[in-house]
């Protein structure tokens, strides 16, 4: 156990330095306020001005693009920008999807906290708009391919924040859906945090996802199982051993008729809560 922990820590450190050691000459290094210096956290402030190391393009459907640019930043000069996403029709399956993926260090563990600042404009989508997800192998499974993994997601739906537990995608359902009563923050930066507890102590199932907006935990007045066709059996949230991969960007599962932009900045993930920091 001691060796395993030491190896994990070493790998984590390498990943941490790789992700964060890009403060340019003359530029003040990002401090703990953004989580970049938080112990055991991985962080991305996008100040490389291009897609950070380790991230690879994944989904690319309909119109728009996902890129790191300097059109708007929460801190520094750059952010991840989902630009002018549009395509499909509201109420119909299929929508613009522009995402990137990152493989986590081995032995990440079954609990994943995250934090990202999000700016959306000019309108709140009605369709399901995913922003971040994290995936893990099914219990006892040796499968590691992306489409074999259980996953948690943070998104918006019907213009409000939403969180979901999914079985492998496709199809990604029957899924456990929680929709908040809180509208997506528009035309301003908002801090989203989440906790995906795939261990959940001695409980028989992985925990429901938890989400905070600007430090306040969201409540879920709408909670339901979604499946197509509708499912009668309850969703069993399978427990996790290690999260293995994360995905971010913007992914619409139904159409989007209003060209919409999102920016994501100061993305961070870790095994403990990172917080929104200051400034
Ligand atoms: Ca930035």
Q: How would you describe this protein?
A:
The protein has 279 residues and is mainly β. The protein has one domain: Sandwich (Jelly Rolls), CATH 2.60.120.200. The chain is built from 1 helix and 16 strands. Strands 1, 3, 4, 6, 11, 12, 13 and 16 form an 8-stranded antiparallel beta sheet that branches. Strands 2-5-15-7-8-9-10-14 form an 8-stranded antiparallel beta sheet, with no helix packed on it. Strand 9 and strand 10 form a beta hairpin. The longest helix is centred in the first third of the chain and has 19 residues. The protein is globular, with a radius of gyration of 18 Å. It starts with a helix and ends in a 9-residue tail after the last strand. The N terminus is likely disordered. Bound molecules: calcium ion (CA). The site of calcium ion has 9 residues, from loops.
Give the ligands present.
calcium ion
**Total domains, how many?**
1
Q: Helical stretch count?
A: 1
CATH architecture: Sandwich
CATH topology: Jelly Rolls
How much helical structure, as a percent, in the residues? under 10%
Low-confidence parts: 1-33
Distance between the termini: 40 Å
Features:
single chain; 279 residues; mainly beta; Jelly Rolls; eight-stranded antiparallel sheet; binds calcium ion
């Amino acid at each position: 156990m001691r060796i395993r922990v030491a190896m994990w820590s070493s790998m984590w450190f390498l990943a941490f330095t790789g992700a964060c050691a890009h403060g340019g000459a003359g530029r003040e290094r990002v401090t703990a306020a953004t989580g970049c210096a938080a112990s055991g956290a991985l962080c991305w402030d996008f100040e490389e001005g291009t897609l950070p190391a380790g991230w690879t393009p994944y989904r690319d459907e309909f119109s728009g693009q996902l890129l790191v640019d300097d059109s708007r930043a929460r801190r520094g000069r750059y952010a991840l920008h989902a630009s002018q996403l549009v395509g499909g029709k509201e109420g119909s399956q299929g929508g613009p999807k522009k995402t990137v993926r990152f493989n986590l260090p081995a032995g990440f563990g079954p609990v994943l906290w995250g934090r990202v600042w999000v700016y959306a404009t000019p309108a709140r989508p009605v369709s399901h708009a995913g922003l971040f997800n994290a995936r893990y192998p099914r219990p006892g499974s040796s499968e590691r391919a992306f489409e074999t993994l259980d996953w948690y997601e943070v998104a918006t739906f019907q213009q409000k924040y939403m969180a979901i537990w999914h079985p492998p995608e496709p199809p990604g359902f029957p899924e456990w859906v929680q929709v908040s009563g809180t509208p997506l923050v528009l035309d301003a930066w908002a801090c989203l945090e989440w906790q995906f507890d795939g261990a959940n102590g001695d409980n028989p199932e992985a925990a429901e996802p938890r989400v905070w907006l600007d430090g306040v935990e969201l409540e879920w007045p709408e909670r339901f199982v979604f499946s197509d066709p509708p499912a009668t059996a309850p969703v069993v949230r399978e427990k996790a051993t290690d999260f293995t991969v994360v995905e971010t960007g913007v992914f619409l599962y139904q159409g989007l008729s209003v060209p919409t932009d999102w920016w994501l900045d100061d993305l961070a993930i870790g095994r403990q809560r990172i917080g929104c920091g200051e400034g």
